[in-house]
Design brief:
4 helices, 274 residues, alpha+beta, 17 strands
């Protein structure tokens, strides 16, 4: 009797377990069916824009860091070779004199167009007369780099497009260069109290070599696409000689207010010495 009662309970439990299993299976199949029927998640246009914008921002930050770092490896070697003249902290280059910072030059922005960024690089020193002038380059997006010389007060005392060239006797400094955006030829006299801007021209020339203390061989482009040898000669004044053409005068510069430092201040230059 007891065994028949126990068997009844076993049968009841088995039926219950089977019912639960069937119900569970039905629930699972129902949930799967509902999931299959539900549409896949599609981000809204605003969510897609936010994702694309975030990816673009990451790429732009990476490109900016790479751009800011260009040329700094070579600059580090120049800084190490001329102790006490320059140092760099991140994106800011400092020019020094007598153990203190006299000027700073900050790099900024991604260079992707004309005049939309600033890149300052220390290139060493130029010994002119009794003075050592820190020498650096400035790039603003396109075109040639601009040569800069800084004095002990942190002031920009010479700048010009292209490369610098010093006469054998150290009396003259010529900075000259040209590209698709313009040309510049600047002459500075080295005097006891510093550099004096004495002559300039818009001829498209680059310095080649000094033949004498007052004769600098140049490579010029007087006609588009045609290079010609010329001689920059000092004889009372400056002129370019390129036979058989007539000499081309390099005009003397009259002292006048110069607003260029204001432009460079907008590009990250700060005079620190007072």
């Amino acid at each position: 009797m007891a065994s028949r009662h126990f068997s009844g309970w076993l049968i009841a439990l088995a039926v219950l377990a089977g019912s639960l299993a069937v119900a569970g299976g039905l629930t699972v199949r129902r949930e799967r069916a509902l999931a299959a029927e539900a549409p896949a998640y599609v981000p809204t246009p605003s969510e897609e824009f936010a994702l694309v914008y975030a990816e673009m921002a990451i790429d732009e930050r990476r490109l900016l860091r790479e751009s800011l770092g260009e040329g700094r490896e070579a600059e580090a070697r120049h800084i190490a070779a001329t102790p006490g003249l320059a140092r760099r902290e991140g994106d800011v280059l400092f020019i020094r004199h007598d153990g203190r910072d006299v000027a700073s030059f900050a790099d900024a922005n991604l260079c992707e167009g004309f005049d939309n960024c600033s890149r300052w690089r220390f290139l060493g020193e130029l010994a002119l007369g009794p003075r050592r002038y820190p020498y650096l380059s400035f790039f603003h997006g396109e075109g040639d780099e601009i040569t800069m010389l800084v004095d002990a007060r942190g002031e920009l005392v010479a700048f010009g497009q292209g490369l610098p060239s010093v006469s054998p006797d150290g009396r003259w400094l010529v900075i000259a260069g040209h590209d698709d955006y313009g040309s510049s030829l600047s002459v500075f006299a080295v005097e006891p109290d510093g550099l004096k801007f004495v002559a300039d021209s818009k001829e498209a020339c680059q310095p080649a070599r000094w033949l004498e203390r007052d004769r600098l061989e140049m490579v010029c482009e007087f006609q588009a696409g045609e290079s010609a040898r010329a001689m920059l000669v000092h004889d009372g004044g400056w002129r370019l000689e390129a036979p058989p053409d007539a000499p081309r005068p390099v005009r003397a510069v009259t002292p006048e207010a110069d607003d260029e430092p204001g432009y460079f201040e907008g590009k990250g230059y700060r005079r620190l010495a007072r």
